[in-house]
Input
Amino acid sequence: MIKFSDEKLKKVDEIVARYPQGKQKSALLPVLHLAQEEFGGWLSTEAMDYVASLLKLEPIEVYEVATFYSMYNLKPVGRYMFEVCQTGPCMLRGSDQIIDYIKQKLNIGIGETTPDGLFTLKTVECLGACGYAPMMQLGKHFREHLTPEKVDAIIEECRRNTAANN
Amino acid sequence: MGSRKLLLEKAHVPGIRGYDVYRREGGYRSVEKALKTMSPDQVTEEVKKSGLRGRGGAGFPTGMKWSFLAKPEGVPRYLVCNADESEPGTFKDRYLMEFLPHLLIEGLIVSSFALGSKSTYIYIRGEYAWIPDILEQAIAEAKNNGWLGKNILGTGFDCEIYVHRGAGAYICGEETALIESLEGKRGNPRIKPPFPAVKGVWDCPTVVNNVETLAAVVPIINEGGEAYSKIGVGKSTGTKLLSACGNINKPGVYEIDMTISVEEFIFSDEYCGGIPNGKRLKACIPGGSSVPILPANLLLKTAKGETRIMNYESLSDGGFAKGSMMGSGGFIVLDEDQCVVRNTLTLARFYRHESCGQCSPCREGTGWMEKILKNIEYGKGKSSDIDLLWDIQRKIEGNTICPLGDAAAWPVAAAIRHFRDEFEWHVANPIASQNRNFGLAHYADPLEVVPA
Ligand SMILES: Cc1cc2nc3c(=O)[nH]c(=O)nc-3n(C[C@H](O)[C@H](O)[C@H](O)COP(=O)(O)O)c2cc1C
Ligand code: SF4
Ligand code: FES
Output
């Protein structure tokens, strides 16, 4: 069974306290973020049901929300998710070529994960970094002004991090 | 020299992100002035006098919006800061929050005082995942120094600010969808009325304002509404942040007073620095992806032959037929090598992806437009497709619950209106269009001036 650590449970209480009494449903988006971080980068039914019980909501209320927002992953994803922006301003600065380069380099298509479970490639819409294009989101941060060389370096960095943590 | 900076003046002072430097540079003076020497209504009055218009895209006068807020006895009121910033081309609020977090917090305290909001929320797009840490740090510092919390400056005013992170949905920038999302629901816009000013978050009276709007309250209170209103021209008062991107030498965030020409903004070294590799200007979307694209010849000069200026009035001169809009300040430049069909396709895909699906014209229309544009772009278009696109966008516009439908329709309408030749060329040359672009064509040729 999945469960937050005591420290995370304290964080949940802190989040709930931001909203008026009885409006704990407002904590749903932030708590789902927390659950996704804690439980392997995606939201299983079990994880969503757990969040529902924490916030005293019906499970359906959680599913409805989790399926609406693009940042919640409802299927397992690779350890590193390359979310490359493909909207107009990034396209004008070569995002199509960067996406092609990543596909070829990792030998996967859009929406796919490498067999070793390390990398997932996803295309996304404008992330608010249009002036620093092409770009992608990697975890909490943006990687901007991408070039093939930079993509190579990022892949290397992820591999090194994995080796260091295993 | 360049224009006056009211927001970004201190952005490059080392350490300005931290409280001590920010305070030393004059930060939080507006809170002292407002809370100690003014009443909430006087603050609203100053904002009215300043002529400040909402910086989130619609340009609605902020002081007027504040005065609409219902104030029933015993019911809490809320201020919500819209930091959802997801309109393609727009990244100015991010800059403000990343580099000058205390400026936003300061503006929020003064605005919360004016509106009587004791719990104020910053709704920030989920993808800006590192920025809540920056904002929460600034909030904690402000609180430690007595600018937030209970009985601020001994005035009896209590206020807390909380950061609420979204989770990926452009539609949550629309104020009623934002309110739904803040309540922990899907971001489906509400039917108005009731307006948020009467019934907003948790059914309480609510004001939603953009990040830049609320930051601008700081110089307005410091210098006075009247002084602020003298910067700029006409109804475009004060300064405006622009985020410039696309094919320019110096993409980034710039603060302008609204008196410089579009040409100067694109070509001067102080701003965009011209177009790379000696290419020529083909087109521009001057106010975020929702506003009409203009070809070079209509961008730099209005249809009347006047120089086009970077402000609300001049950018919209000529209406939708011959003008555009200031919008969110997302300034997207296309050089001569860019394909308007492809650009329009990416935007149509964006709106299809972001439609919440509540209204059928928006849900079906955005998907249909994307499909047709894809056919044209990939050499499978028919000549009737162009008229069909025109027809679909017209049927979306004005027939939906929220303005996302219009926002999806306008870019397609403007692209066809001004670049029909390019669409026709794609249809007539399905093979050639896969290997090369239509190019600059006649889009920069001087226009015949229609006497006013
Ligand atoms: C589809 C859609 C997306 C929007 N996105 C944003 C946004 O990201 N940020 C914003 O400030 N306003 C956005 N708006 C405008 C808001 O609804 C609202 O008008 C604005 O936050 C009011 O603040 P202001 O008066 O300070 O501009 C959006 C509107 C629509 C229809
Ligand atoms: S216009 Fe589109 S985004 Fe807005 S409410 Fe209707 S379906 Fe949703
Ligand atoms: S278009 Fe890619 S970040 Fe805006």
About this structure: Helices of chain A lie at 6-16, 28-38, 45-55, 59-68, 88-92, 95-106, 148-165. The beta strands of chain A are 80-85, 119-124, 136-138, 141-143. The longest strand of chain A covers residues 80-85. The radius of gyration of chain A is 18 Å.
